[in-house]
Amino acid sequence: MISLNRNNSNLNIFKIFLLLISIKLVFSITPPQTEYDCISSIKNKYGTTIDLNELCISAFECDPITGSILTIAIFPSNINDAPLLLINDIICLPFLQNLTIQYIPVENEFIYHSFPSMKSMIIKDSKNSLSNGIIQNLPNYDYLELSTGEIEETTLNLFYISNVKSFKSSIGYVWLECEPIPIGTNFVTNALEISALNYPNFTNYPRFEKVLMNFNDNFDISTIPNFQTISSNLMRIKHNIASSSLTISTEFYAHLNYKISKLYIDSRLSTPTSYFDFSKNKNYRYLQLVNTQDFHINGNFPILNIQKNTSVLLFLGSLSVFPPISEWGDVNNFVQLSSITLNLPLPNYTGSGEYYLLNGNSITGTIDKSWCNTELNVAYNQLTGTIPSCYTCYFKNPQVSGIDVLPSSLLFDRFQGNQFNNHDISLPCTTFLPRVTVLQRNPLQIKVFGQDIGYDARNWLINSTIGSSEVKKVLIGREYHLTFNNTNFNDVDYFPVLFKLPYNSVLTFPVVEKHPIITKVTIISPFIAFVEGIYFSSCYGFNDTIIMVGNVHCPVTKTSFFNITCETVVSNPFLVSMQQGFLINIGGNKMSMVYINSNPNTINDKQCINGCRDLDHGICDMTTGKCICNSNYQGSDCSIPLVNCPSNSSVNQCSGNGECNIVTGECVCDSGYQSSDCSIPFIGCPIDSKGRICYGFGTCNNLTGVCTCDDNHQSSDCSIPFVKCPSVNSIFECSGYGQCQNTTGICTCDELSFSDDCSLHNCLEPNCNLNGKCDLSIGQCRCNSLYTGNDCLIPLHFVSSVIPSLETGGSAIFYGHFGDLHSDLKLTIGDLPCQITFNSSNLINCTAPPGTGIKSITVSQNHIIWSGKDIYKYISNNLKCPNDCSNNGRCNQTTLECECFPNFGSFDCSGSVENIPKSNITIDTNSSTTTIKNQEINFQIYYKQLLEVDYNGKIIKQYYLNNNWNSNKSSSPSPSSLDQIEHIFTQSINDGNNQCKIITNIKEINNKQEITFADTIFKLEPNSIKLTISIQNYTYQNNLNTLKLEIVTSVNQDDDNDNDCNENESNLDISNSNDLSVFNYIKISKNNKLFSGRFINRVVSDGVSTFLSSTTTKSSSTFDFITVTLNLPHCKKECVIDPDFSVLVTSKFQQNCEKDDNNKKYVIPVAVVVSVVGAAAIAAGAYIFYRKKFVENQLKIRLKIFNK
């Protein structure tokens, strides 16, 4: 110890030596010559007392290395007439960081100049040089103070100080305004101290670290609502404090702002008219009110619901109702009432505050023990009675910052100035009962709790020397959590704690609580025993400790962690015995017991191996050092379990059929028994001549004596081979359709099943009535598209063509597929029945009811209903030729066609056949597009797409036809026949089961011809185009579905136009497109040329001529086009359509145009869409013509397909 002190002394001497050297170095520092000259000029200008020989020693601060001046303060010798301080006076100090001047006027731009190194500037009394206030942005400062009166009532825009981190203006009350901060501007100000006349609007200004605002009598109270726009960690408000009498009061408005953490208000607050609710203000952490004389409502404190996380401080006031201080504060926040006249008794405490300073409030009554749950300072009141022991035990506790005023204060001083009967610093403490448990080992964290443990963690030292680095107050005065960052208890079982107060005691505590360990028991007398060991109670009263010597209770008189003394009464001495039980029970759940010799003056200290483990294993006899094991354990330390064997008998172990191994607890059964308790007889299985159990091909179940054979053997002794039969699955042999002979592995199949594994099956009708094919994998018929049912006998019927009746009713013929099974055959037209007179597999003849127009039909048989939408049209005689032949021809009432007068043509005789310019026809062999060019006009025709639709018209399949054609070689006209030129195109639809083929024949008509199609005779004009399209073997998704075909035509006009005299707008005419005539017509006129299309309302469906409906639409927008829709019946083998197109001119057409009017040329597209989806009505002529042409001929020709 002496050597250590000597080393410390030497070290201190060395430190003093270094300090003297550093001081000498500082004294020897001089500023650079230029800065020296600069200071000299300032000294001469202001007559200061600066000693130029000691610049860096006196009032100036210099850089210790370069000598450059860092800090100066300038005070003139004549404070009333100092010269103006110029920027140039200071700029010669380039490294100056801190400048203070007083009683010196400054140049106008002085405070706005950016000095290169300036951080702090203080200007006090600038002699009216700043009378305009701050009028522009200030440069960057860490701190700027302008304490000068001439700025009084000037306007300060806070945006001008946005580069100043901390700004102070404490003399001269100014008007404040907050100019909006531009986007991208960095507002660095975080501290303000300003004497002001108003609150500005701080909206959109950032949060301040602190704001200190002083207001005088001229404060504009109308700006108080702007208070709520301030956001700051700390704010201090002073109102009228400069007033000597402080007679002017101010209303309380702290409740308006939720964005301040700490608020100080020093103002005479006026008497409120209603209470203030702080339940929503959860941000205040500190609320201090000074001068609260009038701040009450009938003596009640007027603020309600102050949050517990708020420290509340009230000074200089008077209340007649004790404020609810128990509701204020928590373990981290305190409450202070000072100089608040109360004259009321101190209430009981129910709160959780950190501490309560209630000094100088004229409080009466006594201190209830409930106040032990917090720290208390009640000095200079009128309290009487007894101070609780939780405080008196710690009267000598040294000063605690915040609650104790002077550094020399003790906790004793907190109770002075009252009339207590135990305010005595020398009182002993008898109620101190601490407890310590370990919360975590590394880093060490402990919990200190108990009775009268004090309030100051500085008094608690681990290992008597180590103080905590962090303290968490859980319950004030009752529980604290201490953390020791550089300490761990990884290898520690117990530890000492020094409690410096109340009486400097060291107590030992376990890291983990354990049962007490007894190492020595001394029987001092028949009444007194002394026990030594560890893990006893840390101090007397710490835990309830019970000691029994035999049956005698020995009350504890003294205890520590390592020893206990107990003493029984003289009338109940210890029983003298050579082997007496000695039991210690600590806290009701920690027990230890040994055997001792209880004779007086006997020492029992013989230790047993491993302490006999614990009471569950055995008890140590401390007279011999040997363990006395419990009935379930054995061994020298009672560590080996004494295990009973299982048994089904309460008398014998192992059921009386074996021997028990008491070490392992396992039975060794006799030869005739088995199982863990030997209770089950052992039954053997068959063996072969070689002694192999189950013939070596299985395992024996000795419970039953039955063999479990392997996969290749069977029978009770596994002597018979087992062969699996083939199967298509792993669940059933013979695929589940046969019996297996396991000795041979051969299947015997069920009826209708065959093959080696019985996986194939014949159908009940092997050939499926020639309407399908038997699927041998499931034994069921797969019917073709025309039949259904288990044996493919039920037809999926449909109608492919119709010969209707007159509107008066009568015979109607329906062709299609109906099969040979006709159970409950019915046919309806519209909603009316058609009485069947004859039916076969492909024809139904019935008597139609009277009707008009187009109807849908249904055919039902064999519980199957087929519907044809709009495919039946009654024959009407009330038909006319188109446009009454335009008065240029006669109407043929039989055919309903116009017979035009000479020089007229077209379907309605509206066109001229004279002077028709020659048309040139070209056909694209790739796309089948046909182009008819007539002078400047070009007409184009091509097929667009084929659609399959359902009964409701929904598209089921869509096939685009354009550019998918294959061209066959065109047939050129022979010298003997120049009537026409044919072009043939084909394409196929390969879509799953659909193998449809489409063929189109495009004919260029050179000479006038008469054509027959679908038993209808019509004429073709020269230079026209006739199309024929055949759709063959289309496979429908459903027998109710039909097809649509779209044909597109377009017309355009060349730019090089010499035919301007004929130019006119396009006209689209679809008035002659209807379902009532034999033909549908469309007409497009352009430049006095007529382009007409003719569509016969008939189709050849599966070889039978029948009708189809058509719909025509037109559109005029950017392009003009016509759409014609033709609907086909359900054609199974082939549908054939036969439209034609021609070009004529109108009577206004001029052969030769003599002048060009330079009209702008344009292009008009024309589209013709031919739809072949549904079936529509036939337009007909007279009934006689109809019967002759269609009924009689149809009966004669009867489609070849039906005759085959």
Shape: flat
Kindly estimate the percentage of residues that lie in beta strands according to DSSP.
35-45%
Sheet having the most strands: 16 strands, mixed
The end-to-end span amounts to: 135 Å
- Beta strand count: 88
Catalogue the unreliable spans: 1-11, 13-27, 1155-1204
Radius of gyration: 60 Å
Q: Percent helix among the residues?
A: under 10%
Counting H and I runs of at least 4 residues, what is the number of helices? 6
> Strand pairing plus helix content: what structural class?
mainly beta
Query: What's the pLDDT, averaged over the residues?
Result: 84
List keywords for this structure.
eleven-stranded antiparallel sheet; disordered C terminus; single chain; 16-stranded mixed sheet; 1204 residues; flat; disordered N terminus; mainly beta
Describe this structure in a few short sentences.
With 1204 residues, the protein is mainly β. It has six helices and 88 strands.
Can you walk through the features of this model?
The structure is a single chain. This protein is flat. Residues 1-11, 13-27 and 1155-1204 have low confidence and may be disordered. Strand 26 and strand 27 (505-510) form a beta hairpin. The strands form 24 sheets. The protein has a 16-stranded mixed sheet that branches. Strands 73, 74, 75, 78, 80, 81, 82, 83, 84, 87 and 88 form an 11-stranded antiparallel sheet that branches. By secondary structure, the chain is mainly beta. It has 6 helices and 88 strands.
Q: What's the layout of helices and strands?
A:
Elements: H1 2-27, H2 33-46, E1 61-62, E2 69-74, H3 87-91, E3 98-102, E4 120-124, E5 141-147, E6 155-157, E7 164-177, E8 191-196, E9 208-215, E10 232-239, E11 260-266, E12 276-277, E13 286-292, E14 303-304, E15 311-318, E16 335-341, E17 355-357, E18 375-377, E19 384-385, H4 389-392, E20 419-420, E21 433-440, E22 444-451, E23 460-462, E24 470-475, E25 479-484, E26 494-499, E27 505-510, E28 517-523, E29 528-534, E30 545-549, E31 552-553, E32 556-559, E33 563-567, E34 580-586, E35 590-596, E36 602-604, E37 618-621, E38 626-629, E39 633-634, E40 640-641, E41 658-661, E42 666-669, E43 673-674, E44 680-681, E45 698-701, E46 706-709, E47 713-714, E48 720-721, E49 738-741, E50 746-749, E51 753-754, E52 760-761, E53 772-775, E54 780-783, E55 787-788, E56 794-795, E57 798-803, E58 810-817, E59 826-829, E60 832-833, E61 835-839, E62 843-848, E63 854-861, E64 864-873, E65 889-892, E66 897-900, E67 904-905, E68 911-912, E69 919-923, E70 930-934, E71 937-949, E72 955-960, E73 966-967, E74 980-991, E75 994-1005, E76 1009-1013, ...
Parallel strand pairs: 2-3, 3-4, 4-5, 5-7, 6-7, 7-8, 8-9, 9-10, 10-11, 11-13, 12-14, 13-15, 15-16, 16-17, 17-18, 19-20, 35-37
Antiparallel strand pairs: 1-2, 21-22, 22-25, 23-26, 24-25, 26-27, 28-29, 28-36, 29-33, 30-31, 30-34, 32-33, 34-35, 37-38, 39-40, 41-42, 43-44, 45-46, 47-48, 49-50, 51-52, 53-54, 55-56, 57-58, 58-62, 59-60, 59-63, 61-62, 63-64, 65-66, 67-68, 69-70, 70-71, 71-72, 71-79, 73-74, 74-75, 75-78, 76-77, 78-87, ...
